[in-house]
Amino acid sequence: MHCPFCRHPDSRVVDSRTSDDGASIRRRRQCPNCNRRFTTVETTSLSVVKRSGATEPFSRDKIVGGVRKACQGRPVSEDDLAILAQKVEETLRSSGSAEIDAYEIGLAILGPLRDLDEVAYLRFASVYQAFESLEDFEAAITVLRAGHTDHDEDDTAEEPPAS
Predict the structure, then answer these.
(1) What 3-state class would DSSP assign to 118?
(2) In terms of domains, do 74 and 143 share one?
(3) Do residues 81 and 38 share a domain?
(4) What are the φ/ψ torsions at residue 37 (nearest 5 degrees)?
């Protein structure tokens, strides 16, 4: 690590601590040349493998940008989008893989987006899952409704139809 003050090519680690719930390490360093101290933060890199096979670094901004389009006109704030992107990144990092398929990112977005705003979820899912007909929308809406009624019907048993 080069010293940011004198550009000396070496430094000594004085102290190390985990931060961001163990997702990164903060290191306090000292330059042997100028004796000044500075802090570095180390995180694991996460790469996205695109459909074309190309790889690029993971970006929360791309998550926010893609989801923002689905949320246009909805009561979703920029803070909500930032929290969603953070949840998606945490989910992807918890997989333990350094390379994530772009398709997996879309799947990781769907759950938190459904919890955030169901209309935005349908918009995103319709593009992401390439809905081609009204039946595709109806099936997705049926799944959303089933999620709502599962909570309501847990306490009641179905009665047989009257003869």
Answers:
(1) helix
(2) yes
(3) no
(4) -110, 150
> What is the value of pTM for the model shown?
0.66
Q: Which residues contact 32 (CB under 8 A, 6 or more apart)?
A: 8, 10, 11, 12
Q: Are residues 54 and 130 in the same domain?
A: yes
Chain centroid offset of residue 125 CA: 16
Residue-level pLDDT at 162? 47
Q: What is the pLDDT of residues 11-37, one digit of tens each?
A: 999 999 988 767 789 999 999 999 999
Q: How far apart are CA 113 and CA 132, in angstroms?
A: 21
Examine the domain organization and report whether 100 and 131 are in the same domain: yes
Q: Which domain holds residue 91?
A: 47-155
Instruction: Report pLDDT digits (tens) over 48-74.
Output: 999 899 999 999 999 999 999 999 999
Find where tokens 């695109």 sit: 50
